[in-house]
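Our platform keeps sequence and structure together, in a single record for each protein. Because each token names a local backbone shape, the row as a whole describes the fold. One such record is reproduced below, unchanged from the form in which we store it:
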Amino acid sequence: MQGSANLNIMIKAARRAGRSLVKDFREVENLQVSSKGAGDFVSKADIAAEAILKEELMEARPNYGWLGEETGETPGTDPTRRWIVDPLDGTTNFLHGMPHWAISIALEHKGEIVAGVVFDAAKDEMYMAEKGAGAWMNNQRLRVSDRSRMIESVFATGVPFGTQPYLPAALQDLARLMPQVAGVRRWGAASLDLAYVAAGRYDGYWERGLNPWDMAAGIILVKEAGGFVEPILPGADLMGRGGLICGNGAIFDTFSRTIRDRAEA
């Protein structure tokens, strides 16, 4: 894929942060970990990766705004553009030695995500997309699946942990959906769930209570791969915390109706 200058900046930043995270992942038992709340950990690796990403991205585009999971929001002198970054999506997997985690970088322009990168450094899979240029994984063009029968389709979601308020709604979602489908997966990294929908590995994905950095890059991956992405609550802000639902065009209507039967965020 021949990307723009901005996309190449994002890829370079993701690869540099990925090298740092892979090194720490090999020594995960020795990481110093502090708790941010039940089931939600932040490690030295996480903070170091965000510092690398911020240095790379803001040095290249110092006038852009910034929204990062660990360092929060910093307005830019260009109010129309900002980076939205999760330095380590799947922190709990990382800390338990499970190689399913990613770096997520998105570029927002006038409220719209126009470029996104999700880097699965443990597997060396770089997912990338730009508005109008398609979605790619390394050198492979991505398309959502073409499955049209729910009973043959596999979906992904996130199940709330700890004291998060979305558990009752999530359990009701599962109770309605699971009898209709081939399977539901909960792998603990929203950015990769979205990337897998774009790659046709999953047929659909939904989750409540996401933050912008969890989903920003994945949204454009799915759209550019030919999928549908909407807020769970019709008319809500897609980048808000009400939840997201996405899938291929053939099953999206049936899938979304099933989840929206009780769409309380």
About this structure: The longest strand covers residues 81-89. Helices lie at 5-25, 44-60, 91-95, 167-177, 190-198, 212-224, 252-260. The first helix runs from residue 5 to 25.
